[in-house]
Amino acid sequence: MLKLLDLTPFDRLILALANTKYFSVDVKSAFFHGELSEEIFVQQPLGYEKKGQEDKVYKLRKALYGLKQAPKAWYSKTEAYFVQTSFERCLCEHTLFTKWKEGGKILTVSLYVDDLIYTENDKSMCDDFKNSMILEFDMFDLGKMRYLLGVEVIQNSDGIFAYQKKYAHEILASFGMDKSNSVHNPIVPGTKLTKDEAGTKFDETLFKQVVGSLMYLTATRPDLMYGVSLISRFMSYPTQSHWLAAKRLLRYVKGIIELRILYKKGDCSDWRAYTDSDFAGDLDDDRKSTSGFVFLLSSGAISWSSKKQPVVTLSTIETEYIAVA
Amino acid sequence: MKPIGVKWVSRLNYENGEVNKYKARLVAKGYAQQYGVNYTEVFAKVTRLDTIRSINTCFS
Predict the structure, then answer these.
(1) List of residues 6+ apart from A181 with CB closer than 8 A
(2) Is it the case that residue A251 has pLDDT exceeding 90?
């Protein structure tokens, strides 16, 4: 999963610790920058037809939104730009670019389609980068990073907090759970949920909406992971018992809304990983085991998962072995 | 090869409850494209959240 671990450039990143801030920029109409390698003709846009030549078509040189290859064209364009300006692309994460200069100066850029976050330990390098990007692409400088993909971010002297408080409030309100009482655990310990295709079917659409909303919340909440992945198995035929479990998760969210993960400043030496699994936890349906893991980097959880294993195992050892793999 | 249709998508941008901008964008009807005819590769990589969280720790 975290192949970054055995990577030398990444080790160097870790060593090059500095008191840095994160900045973000947004590229305006990003997909329009992508250059096409295929031949595509489009009709003339409504209201802008050439008089007397209405039957002619345009040949595209750059991408339009809606084209199948638009995201790829944009990625190729940015990648070419980074390579040309002597950035080094991370071997395992092709959207992570770093640039080194003498004296341990470093600039790191992470690309999420049209959202870029970058960090540096040298102001001039950062300004150069920003100015050259503004020249190359039409960019909107968002300054110090406050949001990333809808996740709220706070940067202060202790480190970085990532949380989705606003989003959590929104989903509680939209499912009418904003005035409910909170509970202390996401799921009643020992709960076994099973398929119940003879039972009365619950509103499938509503159930799927709750699962989807909670799934996005797991981007910053490892404690929801088990519960959400458990209820998501019953999306095709939810019944009252599954709905009760979903509602309990929402009530748990209500209680933890103020909590957030802290990524502590400056200490990257402490890696920890935990993993565990049950044995044939899904007793009634298919006897598959569920396993989970969490990776901590200096006390902040950075990677987590909870999944039902894809195969049926015959022993607890085999289960744990699959969990670790 | 058939030309791909285009259409205008318009959207209102609000500021303090009032209309701030009238936005319009020309989009292509990508569903009319055929594999091998006018597109081949479409995969674009995005960053894993795990990576973002790792660099958040390492550089903060």
Answers:
(1) A251, A254
(2) yes
Q: Angle at CA B56, nearest 5°, toward A218 and A302?
A: 40
Mean pLDDT of A137-146: 82
What pLDDT, on the 0 to 100 scale, is given for residue A266?
A: 66
Reported ipTM: the value is 0.84
Question: Over 70: is that where the pLDDT of A4 sits?
Answer: no
pLDDT for B5 equals 92
Q: State whether A42 and B28 contact (CB < 8 Å).
A: yes
For the stretch A65-103, pLDDT in tens is 999 999 999 999 999 999 998 888 888 888 888 888 887
- Give the DSSP per-residue string, A33-62: GPBPSS--EEPPPTT-PPTT-TT--EEPSB
Region A28-42: mean pLDDT is: 91
Of A66, A159, A264, nearest to B27 by CB-CB distance is A66
Contacting A with CB below 8 Å, chain B residues are 1-8, 25-30, 33, 38-60
Contact A303 B50 (CB under 8 A): yes
Contact yes or no for B33/A67 (Cβ under 8 A): yes
User: Which residues on chain B are in Cβ contact (under 8 Å) with A75?
Assistant: 44-45
Window from A46-55, A83-92, A228-237, A283-292 with minimum mean pLDDT:
A283-292
Looking at chain B, which residue has its C-alpha nearest residue A44?
A: B6
Cα–Cα distance list, A115 to A28, A142, A161, A228 (Å): 10, 10, 19, 28
| Nearby residues of A25 by Cβ (< 8 Å), 6 or more positions away | A116, A118, A130, A133, A139, A140, A141, A142
B25 DSSP 8-state letter: E
Most B CBs within 10 Å, among A29, A93, A269, A305, to test the B interface: A93
If you count residue pairs, one on A and one on B, with CB atoms under 8 Å apart, how many are there?
149
**Through-space distance between the first and last CA atoms of chain B, rounded to whole angstroms:** 53
A272 DSSP assignment: E
CA distance A87 to A80: 10
Kindly determine whether residue B56 and residue A94, on different chains, have CB atoms separated by under 8 Å: no
Cβ–Cβ below 8 Å for A300 and B53: yes
Tell me if A215 sits within 8 A of A229, measured CB to CB.
no
Q: Shortest Cα distance from A181 to chain B (angstroms)?
A: 31
